[in-house]
Amino acid sequence: MNNGLDQELADRLMPIFESQKFMHHLGVEITGLSEGVCEMTLDYHENWSQHNGFFHGGVVGTLADNAAGAAAATLMAEGENCLTAEYKLNLLAPAKGEKVVAEARIIKSGRSLKVAESNVYSLTGSEKKLCATALVTLVAT
Amino acid sequence: MTVFQAQNPNFEQVVRDSFSRQPFMEFIGAHLDMIKPGVCEIVVERQQGLTQQHGFFHGGLVSSLADSAAGYAAYSLYPENSTVLTVDFKVNFLNPSDGERLRARSEVIRAGKKIYHLKGDVYAERDGQNIHCLTGLFSMMCLLGKSDAPNLGREARTA
Predict the structure, then answer these.
(1) Is position A2 within any domain?
(2) Whole-structure pTM value
């Protein structure tokens, strides 16, 4: 899925991403960006864990949502903005590992609404396991 | 997409038999077009009785078709002597369901012990084109030891 970083898109969107204090606080990185597609990565830290030591479900949802938002932003005109209207998340397996990666892809790009599919994988060594899937609706503002 | 193995070698017959016992699917004229382990496709032809005020297939009908496809995609992986029930679904309508025919396709994403997660999509076939109308996520429960026979849970109560 990761086709690398489209430099032009990255130049345009990175300042917006960097201005998100919450993403900065968690240390989330954009590891892939192309038209309608975004990949975000978050390293494990015990501060992100729940009572079993897995990544907290809320953190997994945040990553899925944010990757979808950035994927939508790649399709926005300059000066246009988008906001999440709603998302539905299925937690498929415990998110345990060294890092989690969210891969989001826009499946419908309408004038006012965009719909993204966002999958979150947990990574341990070379093992990559699907741990959550989300459908995200974003509204252009 | 993960390739799943059916636990029941007889899965196709079990699924087709169950589908044929669903009065609602019969009522709307739907037919089960394809079933393989973890994947199901259901098709329905356009009739005026299935449309809403703009002449598109009604959204509830489109969701029902996706729900049924998801249910049977999950059921194809269940062991013998079990049945299936929807726990939840969420759908996004991507385009108006305008066409001669609807095709719902669903695939298992993850097979758990009790809960199966699936994705489902519905396409409208119009002038030889496929229009992506709906996408959704579904959770299905595997009820072990429960019969799939008609009137599940509605057995006549003895007075």
Answers:
(1) no
(2) 0.87
pLDDT of B97-146, one tens digit each?
999 999 999 999 999 999 999 999 999 999 999 999 999 999 999 999 99
Domain span at residue A122 reads: 7-140
pLDDT of residue A118: 98
Overall domain count for chain A: 1
Scanning A1-94, the segments in alpha helix (DSSP H) are 7-18, 21-26, 57-73
Q: Quick check: is A105 in a domain?
A: yes
CATH of the domain at A14: 3.10.129.10
Q: What are phi and psi of A12, to 5 degrees?
A: -75, -40
Q: Are A30 and A42 in contact (CB under 8 A)?
A: no
> Which of A90, A93, A135 minimises the CB distance to B92?
A135
Give the C-alpha distances (Å, rounded to integers) separating A9 from A14, A35, A78: 8, 8, 11
The pLDDT value recorded for residue B29 is 97
Distance CA B22, CA B150 (A): 8
Kindly list the residues of chain B whose beta carbon comes within 8 Å of any beta carbon in chain A: 90, 92, 94-95, 109-110, 117, 119, 132, 135-137, 139
Give the model's pLDDT for residue B149. 80
pLDDT one-digit tens code per residue, B32-77: 999 999 999 999 999 999 999 999 999 999 999 999 999 999 999 9
Residue A35 belongs to some domain of the structure: yes
All domains of chain B in start order, with CATH: 11-144 (3.10.129.10)
Residues from chain A that touch B109, judged by Cβ atoms under 8 A, are: 90, 92, 130, 133
